[in-house]
Every structure is written in structure tokens, then in C-alpha cells.
Amino acid sequence: MSAPLTREQIAALAALARRAGAAIVDIYRSDNWQLSHKTDDSPITAADLAAHRIIVDGLQQLFPQLPVLSEESEPVSDQQRRSWPRYWLVDPLDGTKEFLAKSGEFTVNIALIEQCQAVFGTVYLPLGDELYQGGEQYGSWAQIAGQQQPLRTRPAPSGCAAAPLVVTASSRHSAAAAERIRAALAARFTTVVRQPLGSSLKLCRIAAGQVDCYPRYGRTGEWDIAAGHAILRGAGGEVLDRRGEPLRYSKKTPYNGAFIAVGDPSLPWWSWLPQPTAKTPSRR
Predict the structure, then answer these.
(1) pLDDT tens digit sequence for 41-70
(2) What is residue 148's three-state secondary structure?
(3) pTM of the predicted model, to two decimals?
(4) Is 278 within the bounds of a domain?
(5) Which of 3, 133, 199, 219 could form a disulfide with 107 if both were Cys (CB 3.0 to 4.6 A apart)?
(6) Annotated binding site for substrate
(7) How far apart are CA 13 and CA 98, in angstroms?
(8) Where is this chain's protein located in or outside the cell (predicted)?
(9) Does residue 158 lie within any of the structural domains?
(10) Which domain-ending residue is among 104, 125, 150?
């Protein structure tokens, strides 16, 4: 691995995420969203593009030697992308549907990828002014209401008197699918509670020890979860692919198959859950 980020660089990343968040909130409150759709029919707004420009320009100034790949970047060939040993992976507005629904559960995601791993992440929730940062080499922490606090996952509950197992899923996904997951886990845990959340907040809440797991069966972009994945690893958790192995990046295509994010990676989560049916994109 390369030299770790310095304290000054980490602070600069936090400031950059806050700047992008402020630009998003300005547009959010103006209602001048300029909504359009990309070729895959996913929504994009003026806020996505404003945050993209701020983050890409900022990273290029702070780290001129490193490539930057944003969800809103011009297309880069898979061959070129996979040739980068170290680069920034950005989702300037994670949770555009949450933005459009005015739920407030959208984030700015900035991840450092090295040798196919998410090694450092910054996630910022603009409307709550919640900043999450960290990685496996750094530990993880949050800055909320002006106070910095360490992040640590919790062990999964066990025993009849244990606290409920808290499962999260996207606020926009099928309640029936979420109920199937809850029912499968209820065969193993005394009480299972569903807590829908938007964007990378799901991973951050697991890192904070407030949620236990987040199973995801549908396709996601690598940029959707890389920053939260790094923070979760720094707090003691992991994102596991359908093989039960840590999720990797710089795959053949920049998309993820089924995964589960967990606070307690020692347990055989996939043996308890409905098995994915769709083919998982290659790890290599």
C-alpha cells in the first residue's frame, strides 16, 4: 500500500465534501433541480453536476497525480479504469431519488481505491451535517453536531434477551422483498426489525453500531458503496460478496452484484438469507 493520507489531507477531504454538500443544499432548497435522465434512465439533477464539478476539481488540485472517476464523469474504458492502481471514486450525490423525494437522506461519497480495495472513505450528509470518515488503516469516526466520535460496529445479538437484529434496506425498494429478508433472519434471531434508509447512510449506521446488516441483491455502482465500505471496514465491519468474500473494486465493469454489509463479519450471513438468483459481475 502507498503512504497513508496525512491528517491535513483528511481534513481537506472533509472540507471538500462539505463544499459539495452546500452546493447540493442550495439547489435542493431552490427547487431549480433541472431534472433529466441518463441513458440507463436513472435521474440526474443540477445538484449532481454541481457537486461533481466541485469534487473533481478539488481532488485534482489536492492529488494531481491520482485519477478521479465520478459517477458523472465522461465514460472511461474499462481497460483504462482497471489499469489504475490507486484512484478516487466519487458519487457526488448518492441518493438522487431521495433528493427528489425530499427525504433528506442523500450523501456525498468520496472513496480512495487502491489495489482493488476501498482504503479510505468520506461520506457527508448535508441536511444533517453529519460527516463520516475512515478506513481499515485509520479507524473510523463521525463528526455530528460539532462533536467527533469514534465509530465501532456491534456484535450481532444472541440469546433470548438480546436486543433486536436491525436490518436496513433502501427506502425506495420493495417492502415485500425486505419482508422476505426479515423473515429469513427471524429464523435465526429472536427479534428482527427493519429500518429503511437512503444512500450510504445504511453503511454508516452499521459502522456506528446502530444497524446490524444491509443485504443488497440488485445492481449498484462501485461508486455507490466504496466510501461507506471503507468507513465500515475501519469500524470493524465488512461488505461481503455472494461468496462471503470482501467486495473488491476495479472489476471488469464498475458494478456490484449481490452483497451484504455487516457489522459482525464472523457470522455466516449468506447461509441464512435467500440466495441471489442474478449472475454476479466478475470480481476480476
Answers:
(1) 788 999 999 999 999 999 999 999 999 999
(2) strand
(3) 0.94
(4) no
(5) 199
(6) 71, 93-96, 224
(7) 24
(8) Cell inner membrane
(9) no
(10) 150
